[in-house]
Write a sequence for this structure.
């Protein structure tokens, strides 16, 4: 069963609203940074920059997150995360293994890992993951090949590991409450934030809903 020990590098509350960028809704780099700032101002405690990031953009992203006091995560690109001093990296099952990411980034950085089963979750934790992203929670257009996993599987994962867990995949204001009782620390969202006209307002609503389903 999951504990909330002080040895954890990231508290679950920081993961209530995990913003994952998608430049599909940003005209340019400036627009993307404005969207990220709005998501943070609305309550996102951790932001993940997608893997299409360039080095200069990643540096700007990390500086913005640092200025606003939130956690900066780079998706997949461990080399870029190391180069720009991001707070951590998120890797998938097919990306650079968590253990290798830890070797590159060192002991103080955060490593997030995607998991779809209890076995993957336990392996990621054993390899040094600091938090997990589990899903897909629902059918999602962001990753068409990401098949939804059952609520029972999500509950089994959160019960099996001692690190924080967020759900990802197709989560919106309309379905987030269906994840109540799953033991999740928060939700990771893409279009529910960045496809909205008012990103800050969307973030505020999603944060409140995420608080309502947290243990």
């Amino acid at each position: 069963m999951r504990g909330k020990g002080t040895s954890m590098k990231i508290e679950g509350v920081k993961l209530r609203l995990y913003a994952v960028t998608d430049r599909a809704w940003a005209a340019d780099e400036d627009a993307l940074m404005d969207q990220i700032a709005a998501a943070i101002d609305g309550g996102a405690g951790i932001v993940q920059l997608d893997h299409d990031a360039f080095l200069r953009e990643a540096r700007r992203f990390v500086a913005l997150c640092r200025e606003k006091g939130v956690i900066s995560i780079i998706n997949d690109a461990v080399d870029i995360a190391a180069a720009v001093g991001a707070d951590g990296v998120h890797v998938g099952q097919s990306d650079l293994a968590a253990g290798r990411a830890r070797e590159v980034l060192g002991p103080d950085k955060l490593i997030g890992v995607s998991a779809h089963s209890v076995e993957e979750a336990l392996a990621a934790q054993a390899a040094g993951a600091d938090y997990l992203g589990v899903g897909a929670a629902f059918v999602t257009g962001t990753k068409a090949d990401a098949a939804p996993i059952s609520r029972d599987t999500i509950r089994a994962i959160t019960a099996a590991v001692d690190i924080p867990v967020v759900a990802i995949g197709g989560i919106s204001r309309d379905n987030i409450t269906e994840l109540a009782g799953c033991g999740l620390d928060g939700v990771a969202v893409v279009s529910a934030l960045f496809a909205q006209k008012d990103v800050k307002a969307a973030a505020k609503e999603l944060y409140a809903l995420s608080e309502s389903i947290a243990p």
